[in-house]
Design a protein that fits this description.
With 409 residues, this protein is mainly α. It has a single domain, classed as Growth Hormone, Chain: A. Helix 13 packs antiparallel against helix 17. It is globular, with a radius of gyration of 21 Å.
Length: 409
């Protein structure tokens, strides 16, 4: 009896360490990703490059992140997350150094590629499977939500942290500060090291079988298509908002304040999404989130733009920011189980990052062509409605393999 109690306590401590370590790593990683928009005005001015060129570098970072997510997820699922985290942290540090040393568009693009490699190994895509395997199914959505809250907290801290560093040290020196910050990921990775345990409750499945099963699943493709829109929204807004408010002649503090408040309300939104996913259909929650985003983006077209308006709309958008992540990733686990969860969620996330690439680059392209972001606001509205509609018919149930596993086992 005493041994059973001690084993339960040890397992609980292990789960707690896993969730906290993953949340801290995701917080640093997502925070560093989210602050890139603060560098758009000073770097384009000092380096004499266009917004499209800067946007292309960050767009490539998002695309490489998406392409690397399934690979990093597969390695994490097969061999453990530790080595993936170390490689990701080192790539992030090198990418930030090259951005600091950039004198041309080519160097900036290389730094963007390295930043994409880095976050593919340290973002939530490579860590969601670790959490999913170590938490009971009934608590999985809440645990993933807790890791997502870590990402939101990282954004909340990183924005004022980076803004102050830029103001006091200049943009070049501040990137060195961010590289040192990324180094803290290395010791945190120890809490997630070790080879994953085999999940005996499921039918044994190879990586190829897992991929074929997912690619034949209609709801998986609906979920994947909807997540494209999430990436489009977040990347466009996060990178181009500082330039947008600067164009309107607002104080330089408005964008960091707005994005910081996105981080605060984002944590509340993630918590609410986790609770929703425990008690209500997850795909309906996703539809409501995407539709609400469309309504918020309409505000940028029809409301008078003042600092108060921008900040208010940002707070509302924050509730809808990363709240898609626990619902989307939990649906992947619901469909296929947690054994190959990081890899399969990585493929869903690839769609997200293709959306990020399009949102970041196309916004810069359209602005350089028209001198306005109005077309991007309209596209954001239309895509929000599209994502709401495409998530609604998802069937939230396990594949046949999981439904028959207890009987065959």
């Amino acid at each position: 009896m005493q041994k059973a109690v001690l084993a339960a306590q040890s397992n609980a401590r292990h789960v707690w360490l896993t969730v906290v370590s993953a949340a801290a790593i995701v917080g640093i990683s997502m925070g560093l990703r989210q602050v890139m928009g603060l560098y758009l005005p000073p770097m384009t001015k000092d380096l004499g490059i266009s917004r499209e060129a800067f946007g292309l570098a960050i767009a490539l970072a998002n695309l490489v992140w998406g392409l690397g997510a399934p690979v990093a997820g597969a390695i994490s699922d097969r061999f453990g997350a530790g080595r993936v985290i170390v490689a990701g942290a080192l790539a992030t540090m090198l990418g930030l150094y090259l951005m600091q040393a950039a004198t041309s568009e080519a160097t900036l693009i290389v730094s963007g590629i390295l930043l994409g490699v880095g976050i593919s190994g340290t973002g939530i895509t490579s860590l969601v499977g670790v959490v999913g395997r170590n938490v009971p199914p009934e608590r999985r959505t809440s645990a993933i939500a807790a890791v997502s809250v870590g990402g939101g907290l990282g954004v909340l801290i990183a924005l004022p942290y980076t803004h102050i560093a830029i103001e006091w040290l200049g943009w070049k020196a501040s990137l060195g500060v961010l590289a040192v910050t990324a180094a803290f990921i290395l010791p945190l990775g120890r809490g997630l090291s070790g080879k994953p345990k085999t999940i005996v409750a499921e039918s044994p499945q190879s990586m190829g079988e897992a991929l074929r099963e997912a690619f034949r699943h209609r709801s998986f493709w609906l979920l994947t298509a909807g997540f494209f829109v999430c990436g489009f929204h977040l990347a466009f807004y996060g990178l181009h908002l500082p330039a947008y408010v600067a164009d309107l002649g607002m104080p330089s503090s408005v964008a960091p304040t707005a994005l910081t408040l996105v981080g605060i309300s984002n944590m509340a939104g993630i918590w609410l999404a986790g609770k929703w996913g425990q008690h209500l259909p997850k795909h309906y929650g996703l539809s409501l989130i995407y539709f609400a985003r469309a309504v918020v983006f309409l505000g940028f077209l029809y409301l008078p733009m003042t600092p108060v308006t921008v900040i208010t709309l940002s707070v509302l958008l924050g509730f809808l920011w990363l709240s898609t992540v626990p619902l989307t990733s939990a649906l992947v686990a619901t469909f296929f189980g947690p054994a190959w969860m990081s890899m399969l969620y990585g493929f869903v996330f690839l769609s997200h990052q293709i959306g990020s690439f399009v949102g970041v680059w196309f916004a810069g392209r359209l602005f350089d062509m028209t001198g306005s972001y109005d077309t991007m606001w309209w596209l954001s509205v239309a895509l929000g409605v599209f994502a709401a509609l495409i998530n609604w018919p998802i069937k939230e149930q396990p594949v046949e393999r999981l439904r028959t596993a207890p009987a065959t086992g």
